[in-house]
Amino acid sequence: MRSVSLTSVPKPTPFALLLCLLCTAAQAAPHRLVVSSGDCRDAELSGQSKAFYDSLRARPEQRVLGAPEFAERLFPAPARSFEDLQRQLDAAQDQFYEGRNAKATQLLDDALRDIKRLPAGEERWKLFVHAQLLHGLNHRALGKLKDSDAAFLQVLRLQPTYQLDPDQYAPSLRQAFEKLRRDLARAPKVNLSVKSTLPASDVYLDGLGVGQTPLTQELPAGAYDISVVKGDVVSFPRQVQAQGVDTPLLVDLAYEGSVTAAPFPCLAVADGNEERTLSHAVRLGGTLGVEEVIVVRLERPSSGPKWFAATVLNVEGGQKLREGGFKTQGLEAPSEALNALVDFVTTGRSPSNLVVMNNANGRAPWDASARVPPASSTGADLTAPSRLSEEADLSTSTAPPGTGLRTASYVALGAGVAGLGGAGIVRLLAQKDLDDLEARRAATGGRLVGTDSQTVALRDSLVKKSDLMTGLLIGGGAAVVTGAVLYLVSSPAKPPPSLTLGVAADGTGAAASVSGSF
């Protein structure tokens, strides 16, 4: 008879269960975000970005923030229209009058959740007021006076002059409403200051327009849903806690307005400023709580093929981790190239047929100054990184023919002009000595006396200045001639600039000039 030993399994402790739940939550949290940059209305950019995102998300080990979650976090849309919500409020009112208060509460709470997602403006505010007043009536019927007052205050805190319709509200209810108005007027207020990076932007609190930036609004303390709008540019939805004496708020509407969710998460780029785009991408990743942001884009150089490129950014440190891309044609990217690019951005490994830029000093093939090597024969039309780096080194180390001679000609001409100009200055300085010497000659009856120390000093000074002027004229003239010869024999890569050389001399001195574009 065989004996069987049984080992008891200890029950998991609450701490172990909590740790397991935390680990599961950490594994489920999104790790990466894919966002395109460029013209967000470009169908080709959106299509290829979506294909890259699908290829990345299809891998089971990758935790990528989904496009629907992106839209829900930054641009929550209502499930129902204004008309649908108005009908739901009418249904809630019917439930209230029929005494089914619990059902009325359910309908009102459900409607308010969607009302807060509507675009800010007068229509939203009217629905909000209607829902809150119904809430106040319904809570009072249930005996929940504090909840009823809180609902009425949601209207009065932004519209303190709001009046209840005497045909619809009983005198006792209007008296309670007036008491709330008086109490609110005596309550301490908070100065909410709102500024925007786009001037004269409209500010909405709970959907009600309260003015334009820069705005300072005196409000009762509490939480407010705030939106800042400038034309078609809308800020991210946010809630601000007005508390203390002052609550300042700065909304970077230029950044937030550049983000769109449809047809694919995108950062609009109007001026081609790559550094600003990458900075916005890092901020976006921080807002959404991801570790890395992958910015994908279409590069269209002035000549050569188009490139689909991806840049991986670390959100915490703001560093560019790696960048890669492949040639593309048409609206769809080759699946082989997409998979290779996904391999690279997720692992850092470089497939042999993928262009890779691993350091900040490298130069991508889509840069205007870089030369693209011959196409690969792999079928996907990709370029090997080793050949790219060789071409880049050649293009940066080899100067166009004649550039050195042309530079030397400019240096020689400049030196020559400086020499001739110096000779002219020396000639002007010598004129004073010459005038003094002539004065000494006149004082001694037209003769120069060799024993006169002042006369000897003037004569020696004139001799030195004469020698210096002669040297400058000879040296400057030689430099001008040398520069002109070098200029003529050099062969620039572009048409030579217009150049004019002038030299003039008379009994009082000499002058030289060079004019034109250098």
Quick recap of the structure?
It comes from Corallococcus praedator. With 518 residues, the chain is α+β, with helices and mostly antiparallel strands.
Key descriptive features of the protein:
518 residues, alpha+beta, Serine Threonine Protein Phosphatase 5, Tetratricopeptide repeat, Immunoglobulin-like, 14 helices, 17 strands, disordered N terminus
Topology record:
Blueprint: H1 14-28, E1 32-38, H2 43-57, H3 67-74, H4 82-97, H5 101-115, H6 122-141, H7 145-156, H8 171-186, E2 189-196, E3 202-205, E4 208-212, E5 215-220, E6 222-230, E7 233-234, E8 238-242, E9 246-251, H9 253-256, E10 259-260, E11 266-268, H10 274-288, E12 292-299, E13 306-314, E14 320-328, H11 335-347, E15 355-357, H12 385-397, H13 403-443, H14 453-489, E16 499-506, E17 509-516
Parallel strand pairs: 1-11, 1-12, 2-9
Antiparallel strand pairs: 2-5, 3-4, 3-6, 6-7, 6-8, 10-11, 12-13, 13-14, 14-15, 16-17
Organism: Corallococcus praedator
Transmembrane segments: 410-430, 468-489
Region (Disordered): 367-401
**Overall domain count:** 4
Structural class: alpha+beta
- Span of the ends, CA to CA: 106 Å
Sheet with most strands: 7 strands, mixed
- Number of helical runs? 14
Strand content: 15-25%
Query: Percent range for helical residues?
Result: 40-55%
Tally of DSSP β-strands? 17
Per the principal axes of the C-alpha atoms, what is the gross shape? elongated
Low-confidence stretches: 1-10, 14-27, 369-401, 492-508, 513-518
**Rounded to an integer, what's the Rg over CA atoms?**
40 Å
